[in-house]
Amino acid sequence: GVGTQQDPYRDLQPALCSLEPGDRLIIWPGRYLGPITVDGDCTDGTTERPIEVVLASGALFFGKEGMEEPIDTPLLEVKRSSWHFIELELEPHWMHPAMLIGPNVSDIQVIGAHILKGVGHGIEIADGVSNVVIKDGHLHHLGTLRGAKRNFRDPSAAGVSVAADVTDIDLTGLVIHHMEGEAIWVWSIADRRATEPELQARNISQSAIEARALLGRWD
Fold first, then answer.
1. What is the pLDDT of residue 188?
2. Would you say residue 202 has pLDDT above 50?
3. Which of 104, 147, 149, 173 lies at 20 to 30 Å from 45 by C-alpha?
4. CB–CB of 31/64 below 8 Å?
5. How many Cα atoms within 13 Å fall on the side-chain side of residue 169?
6. CB-based burial, 25-46: b 16+ in 10 Å, e otherwise
C-alpha cells in the first residue's frame, strides 16, 4: 500500500520507516509481532514537526510467546528523535524491555501507554536521552512470567528505568503496580543504584493496592 486510508500499508516496519517529519501514522486494529524498531532507514522528526504514531483501539504490539528463556531484545526500540507514541498497547512476554528509548535521542513522548505481561522493564530510558514525556500510562505485571514448563522472575524489573544522565524528563499520571522491582528506578553514575528516592514510587503490589507513580518533573 501507499499509506492512505483507501490503500493502507500492509507491513508495519516499512510503514514506520517511510514516515517524514510531521507525518501521523494510525495503526489499525490487529496483532503486530515484534521486534519493532524505529532505527535504520527510519528518520528523525523535528521539534516543530514530530512524527506521531497512534494505535487505534484493538491494535497490539506483542512479543515472543512460548519461549523457554527470555531474550534481550526490546519489543519496541526507538533510536530516532522527535517521535511521539499515542495509546501504545504492548505485551512483550519473553522479550525485554517492553520499550527501549535511546541512547542519545530527544523529544520522545509516550502518552496513554498500556504495558503488561513481560519479564523486564516496562520502559527503559538509555544514556544520553533528553526531553522525554511519559504520561497517563498503565504499567503492570512485569518482571515475572509463569507457565506449565517455565517460571521466571526478575526482581530488578521496574516500571520505568531511567539511566544516570537522562535530562529533562516528565513522568506524570502513571499507574504502576504488580511489579517485581520498583515502579520508577533512577540509576546513579557511581554505583548504578537509585540515589534519588524522592523520584521513586514504591511498588506495593503485594498488598493489592495500586501505586500511583510519580509526580513531577526533574532535570
1. 58
2. no
3. 173
4. no
5. 25
6. bebeeeebebbbbbeeebbbbe
> Quick one: three-class SS letters along 149-176?
CCEEECCCCCCEEECCCCEEEEEECEEE
User: 147: which residues sit within 8 A by CB, 6+ positions away?
Assistant: none
Distance in angstroms (rounded) separating the CA atoms of residues 194 and 188: 6
Relative to beta strand 151-153, strand 144-146 is: antiparallel
User: For the segment 24-46, what is each residue's pLDDT rounded down to a tens digit?
Assistant: 999 999 999 999 999 999 999 99
Kindly report the pTM of this predicted structure.
0.86
Single-letter residue type at 47: T
Decide: 70 and 94 in contact? Cβ < 8 Å.
Answer: yes
pLDDT band at 8 (very low <50, low <70, confident <90, very high): confident
- pLDDT score for 117: 92
The per-residue pLDDT for 212 is: 40
Q: For 113-130, what is the mean pLDDT? A: 94
Phi then psi dihedrals of residue 140, to 5 deg: -160, 160
Question: What sign for the dihedral angle of Cα 145, 180, 88, 165?
Answer: negative
Cβ partners under 8 Å of residue 171, min gap 6: 134, 135, 160, 184, 213, 214, 215, 216, 217
Please check whether residue 159 is in contact with residue 182, taking contact to mean a CB–CB distance below 8 angstroms: yes
CB 97 within 8 A of CB 143: no
